[in-house]
TrEMBL record:
<keyword id="KW-0326">Glycosidase</keyword>
<dbReference type="InterPro" id="IPR000845">
    <property type="entry name" value="Nucleoside_phosphorylase_d"/>
</dbReference>
<dbReference type="GO" id="GO:0016798">
    <property type="term" value="F:hydrolase activity, acting on glycosyl bonds"/>
</dbReference>
<comment type="similarity">
    <text>Belongs to the PNP/UDP phosphorylase family. Futalosine hydrolase subfamily.</text>
</comment>
<comment type="pathway">
    <text>Quinol/quinone metabolism; menaquinone biosynthesis.</text>
</comment>
<keyword id="KW-0378">Hydrolase</keyword>
<keyword id="KW-0474">Menaquinone biosynthesis</keyword>
<dbReference type="InterPro" id="IPR035994">
    <property type="entry name" value="Nucleoside_phosphorylase_sf"/>
</dbReference>
<protein>
    <recommendedName>
        <fullName>Futalosine hydrolase</fullName>
        <ecNumber>3.2.2.26</ecNumber>
    </recommendedName>
</protein>
<dbReference type="Pfam" id="PF01048">
    <property type="entry name" value="PNP_UDP_1"/>
</dbReference>
<comment type="function">
    <text>Catalyzes the hydrolysis of futalosine (FL) to dehypoxanthine futalosine (DHFL) and hypoxanthine, a step in the biosynthesis of menaquinone (MK, vitamin K2).</text>
</comment>
<feature type="domain" description="Nucleoside phosphorylase">
    <location>
        <begin position="42"/>
        <end position="219"/>
    </location>
</feature>
<dbReference type="InterPro" id="IPR019963">
    <property type="entry name" value="FL_hydrolase_MqnB"/>
</dbReference>
Amino acid sequence: MTYDLKKDQNKLKIRVLIVTSVSAEKEAVLRGLGEATYFDVLVAGVGQAAAAATTAKELATTTYDLVINAGIAGGFVGKADVGSLVVSSEVIAADLGAESQEGFLSLEELNLGSSSVQVDDNLVTHIVNEGKKAGLSITTGATLTLSTVTGTAQTAAELAARFPHAVSEGMEGFGVAEAAKQQGIPVVEIRSISNKVGPRDRESWRIKEALATLERASAILPEVFK
Ligand SMILES: O=C(O)c1cccc(C(=O)CC[C@H]2O[C@@H](n3cnc4c(=O)[nH]cnc43)[C@H](O)[C@@H]2O)c1
């Protein structure tokens, strides 16, 4: 079964923008996509600002039907294992807000706007189903975006308590998602897990394995959107 991005648009061809943060992620995505021609893959750089600026610039000049933020990420322990894949049901800017004596206050609580972007349920289901058929271990849930990689058990526990439905953290998702949302284009974040969210231990990051999972995940996309 395919996900029909064309259904309301009377179009024959779709176009998908995939935004990564570094070139190793882009190369993995391109290897997975193979010959598929209707995907454009960009490297935006690390962090939300670069991700949002690059995505917005591209969307201003080219018409897309879907935007995907793809890359590696940290997985919350017990939610998403190293080597597995996560597909976002919601993309959340986890550190956008204010500290207070009573705890963190989100933009929503401050009445200053929204710090999350919802992902279409059917889109998630189609990607998950196709990924499972391909033998990938996939979790769906909220993907957090943070400007600082979590490096202590305390921060990991605080995030897990604030966002019980979170499965992973990365540094670009919300930037990409907000740029897509402002253009009315659906968005999803797809991340392969390279490390646990928790005490910093860069030696334990399994980047090669995560890039291999990202390649396998990208290989299902032509089937999902054919
Ligand atoms: O050194 C390499 O070969 C290499 C290859 C691919 C990617 C990298 C990165 O360092 C990517 C940075 C990118 O990773 C995301 N990320 C991964 N784990 C976490 C995490 O625990 N918390 C937050 N972000 C994470 C992040 O989106 C960065 O943009 C290196």
